[in-house]
Amino acid sequence: MLDTKNPLIAEFLKDHQQFSRLIYEISNLLKANKIEKARERAKELDAVAGPHIAYEEAELYPRLAGLGEKATSEEMLVGQHHEAIDALRDLLNIPTPSEEQLKSIKAGFQDSLTHAEHCGSLISLLTQLEASEQTESLEVLRDFRKQGKNWTDL
Ligand SMILES: [Fe+2]
After folding, report:
1. Three-state SS string across 24-76, please?
2. Which residue, 149, 123, 148, 119, is CA-closest to 11?
């Protein structure tokens, strides 16, 4: 079980839950062909995901690798972010996507949902770090939030 009293986990989960909820909502809106509404949500996702993804790529994944976590590779996880951002960019930038484009956008968001579930469980592994390292890691997350970049601007 996730120790939600751990400050690092609690902070990570704040963004993570919003991130996952938005992806889920966008996925459902796309399935219902409500493209305009999906695009509105996608703008929120872009803002929420910026600090979250930056933290994952700069901190979470390298720390997992440092802990010897072999069940999952950094390269694969970052690759999944790239696929997800392609879908997000297409949804934001193509005013009227073709059927083919829409299909790939939908698939991208569907895959993002699976990825998000996975990342949510990986954070618990960081409780193996020394308390001081967890605090450092949390500072990095807060710094990324202060920078406030969109995902598409990383
Ligand atoms: Fe992730």
Report:
1. HHHHHHHHCCCHHHHHHHHHHHHHHHHHHHHHHHHHHHHHHHHCCCCCCCHHH
2. 123
Tell me the per-residue pLDDT of 25-40, one tens digit each, with 9 for 90 and over: 999 999 999 999 999 9
pLDDT averaged over the chain?
94
Residue list, CB under 5 A from ion ligand 1: 56, 119
CA of 6 to the centre of ligand 1 (A): 20
Distance 77 CA to ligand 1 centre (A): 6
How many angstroms is it from 150 CA to the middle of ligand 1? 15
- Cα–Cα distances in angstroms (integers) from residue 77 to residues 4, 30, 132, in the given order: 23, 24, 26
Domain limits, the chain: 7-146
pLDDT of 52-94, one tens digit each?
A: 999 999 999 999 999 988 778 889 999 999 999 999 999 999 9
